[in-house]
Amino acid sequence: MEKWWPVPGGMEAPSESESSGPGGPGPAVGSFQPSEHQHVRYNPLRDDWVLVSAHRMRRPWQGQVEKPPQEDVPRCDLSNPLCPGAARANGEVNPQYTSTFVFDNDFPALQPDAPEPDACNHPLFRAASARGVCKVMCFHPWSDLTLPLMSLAEIRAVIDKWAELTVELGASYPWVQIFENKGAMMGCSNPHPHCQVWASNFLPNEARLEDRTQRQHLQERGVPLLLEYARLEAQRKERLVVENADWLVVVPYWAVWPFQTLLLPRRHVCRLQELSDGERDSLASIMKRLLTKYDNLFEVSFPYSMGWHGTWRGGTGQRVRGESGHRVAQ
């Protein structure tokens, strides 16, 4: 899929050759079917369009087929800087932790005391301050576990720590980003269940854009964008992956990545710390179910990138959103 911006007046209809492929001609051009014909879909969160070339799914597969990786991760390896009792690059030794463990990233992308950039007298060469803190959060002391292999109680402890960090860091910074890159394919350098938490004095581009689009939707329709979207997807069930009383997981209508999913609450929630005990338990349950499904797709420990988007400090309180955009070959 590609990003696309339709021009005023609509788009030119596809030719007959464009609506057919190696598998034979598709339906007539005049009878549009979303699973057969190319079209563009609107992403209301980003205010842009995605090109869907559905007819290309009939291409014969000629790509390489990879063998499942043979992973043999030891439960505890003191050469792994995330393990209990291991020494990290800065010389500090991790405690013998038994649940979650949080520490300052030894090689942070953001630091709290970075100097201000010099002033620039030309608008094409602008710079601004970027300050913050970067934390690493271990989910579990065992390196051979991942979130779907952990117990519900252990996943619940992770969720509670996420909420705690959001409160702690949100007191000093307007944006707190929790994200996990799982697997070597996603650039994860340490085989140990963990995520990162970045807090910054600025809003990242995607957060800033989503804040604007959701403010606009609320003004125009009187209902939070993602709450309305969740209700519609729950009714239609076309893209529903898994659900429970408090949460649902869908493949977004505007999905770009293969196996991309969106995790949404059924009620209006702004931040993780606002979730009730019951909602945290059901979040642990649906995360385990979803991530287990990913692992079962190809019978491997599925690589992914996952991040939480909540309302920023000073925002209007539009949403809590968990998004998994799984970066695999398209």
UniProtKB/TrEMBL annotation:
This protein's record includes keyword Nucleotidyltransferase: yes
InterPro entries given in the database record: GalP_UDPtransf1, GalP_UDPtransf1_His-AS, GalP_Utransf_C, GalP_Utransf_N, HIT-like_sf
Residue positions of the active site: H194 (tele-ump-histidine intermediate)
Catalytic activity: alpha-D-galactose 1-phosphate + UDP-alpha-D-glucose = alpha-D-glucose 1-phosphate + UDP-alpha-D-galactose
Name assigned to this protein: Galactose-1-phosphate uridylyltransferase
MF GO annotations: UDP-glucose:hexose-1-phosphate uridylyltransferase activity; zinc ion binding
CDD domains: GalT
Gene3D superfamilies: HIT-like
Family note: Belongs to the galactose-1-phosphate uridylyltransferase type 1 family.
